[in-house]
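Q: Structure for this?
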Amino acid sequence: MIASYSTAIPESNLLSRWEVRHKLVGLLALIFSFSFIRELWLLPLVILVSVVIYRMSQLSLAYYWSRIRLPGLFLLMLALMLPFGAGSTVLARVGPLALKLEGSLSVLLIAVKFLCIFSLVLVLFAGTPLQKMVGALRSLGLPALLAEMLIFTNRYIYQLLTDLRQTQVAAGLRGFKGRSVKALKPLAYIVGTLLVRSHNQSERVFQAMTLRGYGEESLVLRAEQVRTFDRLALVATLLLAAGLVFLQFFFFPTS
Amino acid sequence: MHIPDGILPVSVALSGYAAAGGMTWLSLNRINKKFKNPRELIPRASLLTAAFFVASLIHIPVPPTSVHLILSGLMGVILGWFAFPAILVGLFFQAVMFQHGGLTTMGINACLMGIPALLAGALFRTRRYFNAESKVTNGLLAFLGSFLAMGLGALTAALLLIYTIPAKLDVAAERAAIITLAGAHLPVALLEGVFTALVVLFLLRVKPELLEMEEK
C-alpha cells in the first residue's frame, strides 16, 4: 500500500513546530550516532533516547507497526540467518544447525539500531511537509535541480499511479491475468506506455509552466524564522549524539 | 538491493554519501555542459522519474511468487546523466513512503543502483557504432546493460553486507552466503534484462525519441 507524504504528527506538537533545518540536522546527527554504536552495553541508552523522542512525537505504536512491516522483512531474514552462520561459540544445536553466540549478538546489535533509527526516521518525515523538507535540504546545500525534481516528482507520482491502475484494470477486463512469466511482454508494454504518456505530458506541462514564468529564476522556498527553542533543541540533540559517539569511542575503542 | 539502516558501519555509510555526492556533482556537471538550459529538462526528467517509481511497483510473476523490478538499467538507457539524480529522488520517496532502504544508507544505495545505471546507459549508447536502427542491436544492448547493472549492484551489495556485519563469518559460511545471494539475484537480473529489452523494443517502435534524449 502506498502511503502518501503526509504529516501524521499534529501541527501543535513540539517536534512539528521545530524549525525544519534544525530538526533535520539534529535528528540526522542522532541517527548517525546510533549507527556508530558497536557496543551492546550502549544499546539501552539508544533505546531510551528513541523511546523518549517517539513518545514526544505523539505517534502511535500502531503507526510504527504499520510502517515497519515491509522494511522489517530484511531484518527478519538476517535474524534467521546470522545466528547460525556467524561466530564460533556454539550456544545450542537445532538439528544440523548450530546457534552461535557471536551471530546472535550481532543480530541483537543490528536489530536495536535498525528499530531505533527507524523510529527517528518516522518522526523526521511524519512531522515535516515535503515542501518544507525540500526547502530545508535546499538551504543546506541540495542542488536546485534535485530540489525541483523532488517537488515535481512528488506532484506526479500519485497521478501516474492512478493511470497505471486504470491501465491494469483495462487490461484485466480484456482478459489479461498476469499470473505467469508470459505476462512479461504485456507488462513491458504497459510500462512502455506509461513512459510514453509521461513524456508527452511533460511537454505539455513544460509549455504551461513556461507561460507562467518558469525558467526565469530558480525555485524559491521561503526560509522559516529561527527561534531560541529551535537552537536549544538542536544543541540538545547534537550533545546527545556527541555523547553517544564519545561513550563508544573512548570507553570501548577496540570493540 | 536496498541496504537498510543499522547494518553498515558508519564509516561505510559516510563513504557512501561522499561517493553519491561526487557522482551527483559529476552528473549535474555533465548535464550543465550537455544542455543549454538544463532547467527545461526538469519537468521531463521528473515525470519520467515518477513513471519509473510507479513502474517499479508492478509485480512481475515468477511462479510461485512475484518480484518487483528495480529498472535501474532502463533508467540509464532513457535518462542518461539524469539517471543518478532520478535514482536519488526515487530512493528519497521510497524512504518516505515505505521506509524502504534507509536514511544513513541512502548514499551507498544510490551508488549501488546509480553507477550501474549510468554504465548501462553508456553501454546502450554504443549502438551508434553498430546498426542503431536494428532491433537485435537495441534489444541486445538493452538486455546486457540492464542485466549487468542489476548483477553488479546486487553483487556489490552482497559483498558489502557480508564483509561489514559485526560478527565474522567463517570461510565456508562466507562462500555459501555469496553463492546464495548471487544465486538468488541471477534470475531477477535475467528478468530485468529481458524486461528492459522488451520496453526498449516497444519504445523503438512507438516513440524512438525517448531513446535518443541523451544522443541529441
